[in-house]
């Protein structure tokens, strides 16, 4: 079968569904395809950060009656390697706003339904095997439910995740073994005791530079996981699942939560690609969004917020380009410009900070983390900034400004 659309969106995750919703709402005929049949699960920490919520509100997709059914996050707890705990509450903080923990099977289905309500056409169980950009049009081809299909369009939003580089010769796959990837495993548990409304990040001695997390999905349930940059993991020569089990066994706080807990989902893993500085985000009539562009935060691993932002920028760039005379590169030009100022600079700063923390010149990573957690406990402003960085909410270029370091120095001297 063959169809013609204004835009084809490949991948119905947060970036793809939001892009499709925006384009359909603007009156463009939009096709959204995904290899899965929704609803489907996705390996993730399930954290919908305050930044992600703000983006959904700006796009008109946030529904308080839906989100209020899930675990609302009121702050962050960060545990240092030596056991100090920095607790920062966001309750009543209008600048940050609210965050949630929502299983991806539910969250992604919610976004897909939003795109459908606005008029996008969805085809699940569609395995796209080729995407091509030409001077006059683009096209995608593959199989849908075992039947071959071909769709022509003016532009493609490639939100195909970390594994989609093989679909187009314009975008080679991201390297799997380098400082530009991390890997993580997670499972869902219920029957936990003593959980609070906080996202917890644990930097355990012997498990750094990786970290573990406990994100509450309810009063007695949580998403529990552990992740590490891939090059560091390979040097340990220890399977990630073994490090995850060590995290559960050696962390006293986590042990107390999980004394009678039971696992209700299998332990599953995934690779999270980070953006390479030279990696293209658009070429010709194809725009990359979300994990396909490496738009995950190298410092925190948070990816939903940047995925949503890239989907929104892609849709708005396309809407401007489609409203004018047909020019193969106009949407790509607008999108590159928007990503450069609103996403890429921040991620480049995060990559620099990640390297500085993981490869410190004058001390160890563990001692550096101990230092920041201890100082954050003593100084409320610094503690709040650290918490915002951890959840991917504070622009990293703010941290690198000279004025920020002057304020930090004054805060430390006064603490």
Describe this structure as you would to a colleague.
This protein is an alpha+beta fold. It has three domains: 3-73 and 95-175 and 274-354, FAD/NAD(P)-binding domain (3-Layer(bba) Sandwich); 178-272, D-Amino Acid Oxidase, subunit A, domain 2 (D-Amino Acid Oxidase, Chain A, domain 2); 360-413, no CATH class. It is 37% helix and 26% strand. It is built from 13 helices and 19 strands. Strands 1, 2, 8, 9, 10, 11, 18 and 19 form an eight-stranded mixed beta sheet that branches. Strands 5, 6, 12, 13, 14, 15, 16 and 17 form an eight-stranded mixed beta sheet that branches. Strands 3-7-4 form a three-stranded antiparallel beta sheet. The protein starts with a strand and ends with a helix. The relative contact order is 0.16.
Helix-strand makeup class: alpha+beta
Low-confidence stretches: none
User: Which descriptor suits the 3D outline?
Assistant: globular
Total domains:
3
CATH fold-level assignment of the largest domain: FAD/NAD(P)-binding domain
Largest sheet: 8 strands, mixed
Quick check: average pLDDT? 89
Question: What's the CATH superfamily of the largest domain, by name?
Answer: FAD/NAD(P)-binding domain
Q: Name the CATH architecture of the largest domain.
A: 3-Layer(bba) Sandwich
CATH class group of the largest domain: Alpha Beta
What is the tally of helical segments? 13
Helical coverage, percent range: 25-40%
Our Rg estimate from Cα atoms comes to: 21 Å
DSSP, total strands: 19
Beta content:
25-35%
Terminal-residue CA separation: 68 Å
């Amino acid at each position: 079968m063959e169809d013609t659309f204004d835009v084809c969106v490949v991948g119905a995750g947060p970036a793809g569904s939001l892009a499709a919703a925006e384009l359909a709402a603007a009156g463009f005929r939009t096709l959204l395809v995904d290899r899965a049949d929704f609803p489907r699960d996705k390996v993730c920490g399930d954290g919908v950060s305050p930044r992600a919520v703000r983006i959904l509100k700006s796009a008109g997709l946030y529904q308080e009656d839906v989100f209020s059914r899930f675990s609302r996050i009121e702050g962050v707890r960060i545990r240092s390697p030596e056991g100090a705990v920095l607790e920062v509450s966001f309750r009543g903080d209008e600048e940050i706003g609210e965050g949630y923990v929502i299983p991806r099977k539910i969250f992604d289905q919610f976004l897909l339904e939003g795109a459908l309500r606005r008029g996008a056409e969805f085809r699940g169980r569609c395995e796209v095997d080729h995407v091509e950009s030409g001077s006059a049009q683009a096209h995608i081809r593959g199989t849908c439910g075992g039947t071959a299909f071909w769709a022509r369009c003016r532009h493609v939003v490639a939100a195909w995740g970390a594994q989609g580089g093989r679909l187009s010769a314009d975008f080679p796959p991201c390297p799997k073994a380098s400082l530009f990837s991390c890997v993580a495993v997670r499972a869902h548990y219920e029957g936990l005791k003593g959980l609070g409304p906080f996202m917890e990040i644990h930097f355990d001695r012997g498990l750094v530079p990786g970290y573990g997390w406990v994100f509450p999905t309810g009063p007695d349930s949580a998403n529990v996981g552990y992740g590490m940059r891939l090059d560091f993991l390979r040097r340990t020569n220890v399977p990630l699942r073994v490090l995850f089990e060590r995290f559960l066994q050696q962390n006293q706080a986590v042990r107390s939560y999980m004394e009678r807990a039971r696992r209700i989902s299998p332990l599953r893993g995934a690779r999270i690609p980070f953006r390479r500085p030279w990696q293209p985000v658009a070429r010709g009539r194809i725009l990359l969004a979300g994990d396909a562009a490496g738009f995950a935060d190298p410092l925190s691993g948070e990816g939903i917020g940047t995925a949503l932002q890239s989907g929104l920028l892609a849709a708005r760039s396309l809407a401007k380009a489609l409203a004018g005379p047909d020019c193969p590169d106009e949407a790509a030009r607008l999108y590159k410009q928007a990503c450069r100022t609103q996403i890429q600079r921040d991620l480049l700063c995060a990559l620099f900070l990640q390297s500085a923390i993981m490869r410190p010149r004058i001390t160890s990573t563990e001692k550096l983390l101990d230092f920041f957690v201890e100082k954050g406990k003593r100084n409320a402003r610094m503690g709040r900034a650290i918490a915002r960085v951890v959840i991917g909410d504070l622009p990293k270029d703010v941290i690198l400004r000279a004025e920020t370091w002057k304020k930090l120095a004054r805060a430390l001297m006064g603490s």
